[in-house]
Amino acid sequence: MNIQTVGVVGAGVMGIGVAQNLAQTGHQVILVDISENILDKAKHEIRNNIRFQSFYHKSDNTETPDSVLKRIEFSTDYKNLENTDFVIENVTEKWDIKREVYHLLDSICPADCVFAANTSAIPITRIASATKRAEKIVGIHFMNPVPMKPMVEMIRGYHTSEQTIETAKKILAQMGKECILVNDSPGFVSNRVLMLTINEAVFLLQDQVATAEDVDKIFKGCFGHKMGPLETADLIGLDTILFSIEVLYENFNDSKYRPCSLLKKMVDAGLHGRKSGKGFYVYQ
């Protein structure tokens, strides 16, 4: 498949990063979300991200933010995806919302269009069941910030075809990404491990075993991690962390995935991390 136009559904942190990465690697992008305000914010964030990137990572690429943004169409109308070759979905980790999005995409997009779910925990086989093209559904778990992370986790659902896998590998290579292919399971590899680690780190904070700073210092100083688990939680978004750990708890019915009550309380209070200005740390 010769991929010309890529649809990106959801203009949150991940959707913004995916759209930017695609546009910077020469793709035409249609970024869809439910309101003009969200899309205006996305445009502003992409512009700032490109400026930030050029400041810290000097390269021969002299493209301006405006030239990159010209490759992105911002829309609230899903019907604009009717001629897309490939769609990457990045909506919130709530199954009821995702299911409706896939019903809509399935009714609008061409029959040969591949859908890639950028989910952190929801099984790809379940997502495929919401469509009439189960063989064309694949999971692509991008890492944040998307344009700066060279590796992704690709997930094969029960019905995912080899052709779909190869198509997804092709577009990822065009985006400058390497992928690791894994089989379908809630949370896949990365988040079955990461979400448990973050949740347990929040329990340590709740139990007053250590401060957030000291928990993170131990992981950075003792294990060589670039970020500690609580810093990572703030980067991902505490609401996304909670959604993901709840999906794992629901799917495995195992008490080890029980969300920490402090995590729930912080999400209820709107302390979602970097995107809200405050989580385990305060951001200006």
Automatic annotation (TrEMBL):
The keyword Transcription regulation does not apply. Keywords: Oxidoreductase. InterPro entries: 3-OHacyl-CoA_DH (IPR022694), 3-OHacyl-CoA_DH_NAD-bd (IPR006176), 3HC_DH_C (IPR006108), 6-PGluconate_DH-like_C_sf (IPR008927), 6PGD_dom2 (IPR013328), NAD(P)-bd_dom_sf (IPR036291). Residues 187-283 form the 3-hydroxyacyl-CoA dehydrogenase C-terminal domain. Residues 5-184 form the 3-hydroxyacyl-CoA dehydrogenase NAD binding domain. Pathway: Lipid metabolism; butanoate metabolism. The keyword Ion transport does not apply. It comes from the Bacteria. Belongs to the 3-hydroxyacyl-CoA dehydrogenase family. This is NAD-binding protein. It comes from Anabaena subtropica FACHB-260.
